[in-house]
């Protein structure tokens, strides 16, 4: 990487503004918000330990949810400070505000090695607007900056882009944290020159979310295995009937183009040959977003190339899981992003779990390098207890996809180049 590393900084007794991605899932329990998955916090510990050992005064900035500029109590980072303290085994101070007197006083009270977490930067709409005055208030807090928030690096916000630009303009150094470096290494360099065969497994709901990633990976991969609702757009493009499955009829042309590119480049492009279907029945109720809640009735296997008119495809079938498993077993490099079906529902989780097991086994026994693109695939691996058995799991969702598309991440671009 051509950016400065946190290891390069001289931080002793210096305040360092560290952007982390603590946008973690939370749940209310007995009137208190608790962190239900601390992976993103855990993954920043190496950077924080390094900074603390070297005597930095650590000021953490983060966002939680999308409060859209309002002080939303359920989106306070206070419970995250408690969780971080528990995980790192030292006190973590908390400031009720991310800028202004409260934040500045709390920062001024830090001694070498101390850690302070600032309140949710998105309590200000100026954060997402990347407002220069607000970025200036953040930048006042420190002369050095570290970005360890890979998951938020695709956002050009004040805490990820504006503040480091201002700190750099004042002559301060802005560096990548250790997690950021690992993310860029695995999603970047390792996939740039993969050991072959390189097998890509892509799932999830929409082709439109992943078409640019598919296009780029088609230049590198030996095989692409498709699952999830996304498969139905490819099937539509092949002239199949997809019933009530979530397909994007207006994306058939891009699906067709991807399959054509695969054929020309000799990339094996596999679609499910069987699936688990169910019949969606309207319950008459709506969810929080106002969408009708469907009861998925009568789950069953379907081997017919067409999905019956009243049915919806919700998982890959056993035959597909077996075929995909064989291709995965032969891989030297694996990249997986997106579940094979509606895995949150146990009735439609078998396909995703089979892929998770196959990826873990190829890593453990076959010595393959396995890189997981974040989001739901990480959730599925953890749910199956296999999280520790792959080479790398990204903490990014949207950021991983944008990075894999070859886009420049504003949070990375704002960091200081190594030569300087
Ligand atoms: C995420 O969880 O995707 C990142 O923290 C970024 O959050 P955002 O999508 O709300 O910008
Ligand atoms: Mg997101």
Folded structure, characterized:
- By secondary structure, the chain is of the alpha/beta class.
- The chain has helices at residues 39-42, 45-53, 78-88, 100-108, 125-128, 132-139, 158-169, 178-192, 207-217, 230-237, 252-265, 318-329, 350-364, 376-383, 398-404, 410-413; strands at 15-19, 26-29, 32-35, 57-61, 93-95, 115-118, 144-147, 174-176, 198-202, 223-226, 268-270, 275-286, 292-302, 312-316, 333-337, 369-372, 392-393.
- The strands form four sheets. A six-stranded parallel beta sheet has the order 5-6-4-1-7-8, with helices on both faces. The chain has a six-stranded parallel beta sheet with strand order 11-10-9-15-16-17, with helices on both faces.
- Helix 4 (100-108) links the parallel strand 5 and strand 6.
- The radius of gyration is 23 Å and the shape is globular.
- The two termini are 14 Å apart.
- Residues 21, 23, 66, 151-152, 155, 397-398 line the site of 3-phosphoglyceric acid.
- Residues 397-398 line the site of magnesium ion.
Q: Provide the residue-averaged pLDDT.
A: 95
Question: Structural class, from helix and strand content?
Answer: alpha/beta
How many strands appear in the DSSP assignment?
Answer: 17
| Biggest sheet features | 6 strands, parallel
């Amino acid at each position: 990487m051509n950016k400065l590393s946190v290891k390069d900084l001289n931080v002793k007794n210096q305040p360092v503004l560290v952007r982390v991605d603590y946008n973690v899932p939370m749940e209310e329990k007995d009137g208190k918000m608790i962190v239900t998955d601390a992976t993103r916090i855990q993954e920043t510990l190496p950077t924080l330990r390094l900074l603390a050992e070297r005597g930095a005064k650590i000021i953490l900035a983060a966002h939680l949810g999308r409060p859209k500029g309002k002080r939303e109590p359920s989106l306070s980072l206070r419970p995250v400070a408690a969780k971080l303290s528990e995980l790192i085994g030292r006190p973590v101070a908390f400031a009720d505000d991310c800028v202004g007197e409260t934040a500045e006083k709390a920062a001024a009270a830090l001694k070498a090695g101390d850690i302070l977490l600032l309140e949710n930067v998105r309590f200000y709409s100026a954060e997402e607007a990347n407002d220069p005055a607000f970025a200036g208030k953040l930048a006042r807090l420190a002369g050095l900056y570290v970005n360890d928030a890979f998951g938020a690096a695709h956002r050009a916000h004040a805490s990820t882009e504006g503040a480091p630009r201002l700190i750099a303009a004042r002559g301060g150094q802005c560096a990548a944290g250790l997690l950021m470096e690992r993310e860029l290494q695995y999603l970047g360099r390792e996939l740039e020159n993969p050991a072959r065969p390189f097998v890509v497994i892509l799932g999830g709901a929409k082709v439109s979310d992943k078409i640019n990633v598919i296009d780029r990976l088609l230049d590198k991969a030996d095989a692409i295995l498709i699952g999830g609702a996304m498969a139905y757009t490819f099937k539509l493009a092949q002239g199949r009937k997809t019933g009530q499955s979530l397909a994007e009829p207006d994306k058939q042309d891009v699906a067709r183009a991807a399959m054509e590119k695969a054929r020309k480049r000799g990339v094996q492009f596999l679609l499910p040959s069987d699936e688990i279907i169910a019949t969606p029945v309207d319950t008459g109720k709506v969810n929080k977003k106002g969408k009708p809640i469907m009861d998925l009735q009568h789950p069953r296997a379907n081997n017919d190339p067409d999905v019956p008119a009243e049915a919806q495809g919700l998982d890959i079938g056993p035959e597909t899981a077996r075929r995909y498993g064989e291709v995965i077993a032969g891989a030297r490099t694996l990249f997986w992003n997106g579940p094979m079906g509606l895995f949150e529902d146990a009735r439609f989780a078998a396909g995703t779990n089979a892929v998770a097991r196959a990826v873990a086994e190829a890593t453990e026994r076959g010595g393959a390098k396995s890189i997981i693109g974040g989001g739901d695939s990480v959730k599925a691996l953890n749910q199956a207890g296999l999280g520790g058995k792959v080479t790398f799991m990204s903490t990014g969702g949207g950021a991983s996809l944008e990075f894999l598309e070859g886009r420049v991440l504003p949070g990375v671009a704002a960091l200081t180049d190594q030569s300087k």
